[in-house]
Amino acid sequence: MSVEIWKLTISEIQSLLTKGELTPTQYLNYYLSRIEKFDCQLQAFITPTPDLARNWVEKIETKLKNSLPLGKLTGLPLAVKDIFLTEGVQSTAGSQILKGFIPPYSSTVYQRLIDEDAILVGKTNTDPFAFGASTENSGYFPTKNPWDVTRIPGGSSGGSAAAIAAQLAHVALGTDTGGSIRQPASMCGISGIKPTYGRNSRYGITAMASSFDCPGALARHVTDLALVTEIMAGNDPLDATSSNLPVPAYSQMLNSTPLQGLKIGIPKEYFGEGIDSEVKTQVMAASELFQKQGAILSDISLPSTSLGIDVYYTLVPCEISANMARYDGVRFGQTAQNTTNLIDTYFQTRGQFLEPELKRRILIGTYALSSGYYDAYYIKASQIRTLIKQEFENAFNSVDVILAPVAPTTAWPLGQKVNDPLAMYLADVNTVCVNVAGLPALALPCGFDSQSLPIGFQLIGNYFEEAKLFSLGHQFQQLTDYHLQVPKL
Amino acid sequence: MSQITTATIAHIAKLARINLTPEETETYAGQLATVMEHVARINNVDTTAVTPTFQVTNNRSSFQTAPVSSQTLSSQKVLKNAPRHHDNYIVTQPSITK
Amino acid sequence: MKVTPIIGLEVHVELRTKSKMFCGCPADHFHVEPNTHTCPVCLGYPGALPVPNKTALDWCAKIGLALNCSINPESFFERKNYFYPDLPKGYQITQLQKPLAINGFLEIEGHIIRINRAHMEEDTGKSVHTTLNGQEVTLLDYNRSGVPLVEIVSEPDLTSSQEAKTYLTSLQQLIRYLEVSDADIEKGSMRCEPTINLKIETNTGTFYTPLVEVKNVASLTGVMVAINFEINRQLTQWQETGVVKSDSNKTTRGWDADRQLTFLQREKEGSADYRYFPEPDIPPFTYSPSEVVSLKSTIPELPQQVVQRYVQLGLPAADAQILSKTKDFSAGYEKYIDKLTESKDKKTIANLYLGALSEYLNLEAIDIDLSKVNPQHSMSIVQALSQNQISSTTAKLIFVESYKTGQDPLVIAKNQNLLQVSDTNQIEEFVKMVIKENPKAVDDYRKNPSAIGFLLGQVMKVSGGSANPAVAKDLLEKYLTP
Lengths: 489, 98, 482
Prior knowledge:
Helix content of chain B: 25-40%
Strand content of chain C: 15-25%
Largest sheet of chain C: 10 strands, mixed
Shape of chain C: elongated
Radius of gyration of chain B: 22 Å
Structural class of chain B: mainly alpha
Number of strands of chain B: 2
Largest interface: A-B, 73 and 56 residues
Number of helices of chain B: 3
Number of helices of chain C: 15
Oligomer: heterotrimer
């Protein structure tokens, strides 16, 4: 195989498939063999699905042979975060409580990709129910960062990010509630899109925080993110919070935002003292690259940034505490044995099968909503949420896009922060405000630190400005080759 | 905002129907106290006359449009996932009167 | 000592929409195979999301408008969090802070009962307690989970169990007029929970007993009996303990229909902490003034207006009430009197409708069938009566027959020989014959004029019932006068 498959974009591959220079089976097998070779070390997957994938590719080969119409993502090896329900395939949400759960329905956005002939290669590891930023909370095992297997891949979409970085899949699905696509993408040296809240349907994805959760994608090429988002996005009658706005043809708009005269806001609060100096250097270098192309860098201030963590860790656990109540062992999932009555079953099932991070957040949320605390926590935090939103809206009156680091540091060693939840939470300072406001953001790789660990930055846009973000990201990738770096495995 | 003690955790865990060992109760009490202390900073923000945001979208009045029964599952599919079932019913131990 | 009961009623009404409140599953669950009208949403499966049913909201608004409520221009849902196996998500989607409809009233027998709210929520699944292989179990059926419920809460303006019953029957009638629910208490599509306490005035002061909410009352009679039981029990309890109402001593008691008493229900953890917060999965919904006007215009004439109209027609209030009992029943009457112009004729038909025809319908245990109601028939009968072609007695029979068979009243009268003879000459012949053949009766009459009844009866007999009795009587008297 002379062509390096992992380097190609979806449309380049589709072109080869059409010309017969590549078969869907060859395309798939490239990734399947890498999963076979490297996943035991990386543990990016909870449930690899090679048999299913081979079965599907056979069907595609038949369609191809009979000149039947094929989808826009023909043969795309797709890795899916295990919190997305996939009909007929185990979906654990990274937790023991759903071990063995085979859903009879699928997530809407996943189904939209499958309908375009994408192929599921496996369900990726995640912090349970997406609660976490390192994938270490997973009820199964921790995933390793392909760049340094003693370190975390980031989280919660750590399995998806590792899979892309190690070329175990072409595109992966993830969710971003407080940074869970952008942070692992940055730590693994790849790209990830968190669209505007409501752009992608949440139906069929285990709910973490209903007003924050954003399904999105991870990949090497921004063009691939653009195409996949174009197909995933759009109103879903099964999700009342999904947007009615039409979906632009992102894949056709990659050159739609000129860099000349583009006003880029650099928020000082995102470059504070907690940010590693090497991270700052590389991120500023990225902004200077845009500047060289004619963009104008502008210092802005988002004063409520540090409050974002407190707002986030008040509201999100509140919504979590209610969303997790359905996991009681009655209608599905694991259930405690040898219990004496129903109440006992609830207590034991949840006590036994919910991972510590799940318990922690449920407790925080239950506490904050409990009698006497609702106004002080939930209402107060929701008011500050308005202030954070307004700060962004004001900022966008003077700039076109905001540029900032994603994580304050590069990937830290496995086990380093597991016993310090607060330290783990505080590391989300650069990502959570975007979720609090519901804005779209694109994470891109922009270099490495002195230990050869990837560094990423993010472009934050105004509501429903995904096209602008894809265009800027695409142009950045034409000027750089960070996205083409691969770890040695 | 009051102190979070093991008694607090025990009460909250009961509301949330989660069985905790005494060690867990202690650990979580400490962790929650730390987190909530930090979070308490929201108290210092002046939010006079600020409307809370419960929905970041501007969606209003979003109603059912999918056809009736389009997602309805066969009872077979429903029961397949239930840990215990009998004659089309899902079975649990007796629930205490509400 | 003066004891005044203070009673409020919380009523839940199941709406008969096609789909459930938050998903597309069929809402009907009566006599349906368990767990066949369920989906990920109403089963509380992972990743499922609620999408509200607009029809249900509109019907809730209609109920509110019919109860003279204001409709909140913007309203939203909230989560009420608690654990119970028939509540699959571990929370119920309901409304608390901003109910759809507020501040209305229902007038019953001159007394205004204020309505605090009418709001929208979802029903729970059904649990059946039984034994399986010697083990006690609970069987769960989620067909009812997610069915739309309207909760109607009255202020504590009711003062007796009788008033409570009247309130409930009026509310039930109103809801049935709106055709949004079967509102059947026995079937469970209308459920009532009274909250009762007492105001006790003595010469040492005024005391209020603690509030008690009574659950599990499954019939109208049950409501009355439960309320009366509670009134007595609370009085006794106060006399024994002196405990008065406070902010924290409201209790819930269950009604035991077998033993005819209320019993304290074990509270799970002191007072329940429902931890309400706005439902993040459902954006707020709005009702503009023009939408409210439009909804109002779809509300039919309500029972009270119908009654008023009949009273103005000259019908007695009691009759007017019965005529308005259901929309169809009053529609039947309206159809019958559609072509009549004289109010005395409308009254005549009212009597026939409420009398003979209702008796027939009750006997057969059937409802009025509007397709059998023919306004020509009533015109025909009214005309025949005015022309003395039929008597008021035979009119009853003929009215019912014409409803049953569809035949014109006069045709029926002819075929069954019910036409009245008023021709004086013919009746004279009958009179003469009767006088000749009943000398003893004539003698009795001579002694006592009220004995004419027998002779009149004989004239009716020989005429086969067709003689006009008034004419016959006159002629008898004429011929019996020496």
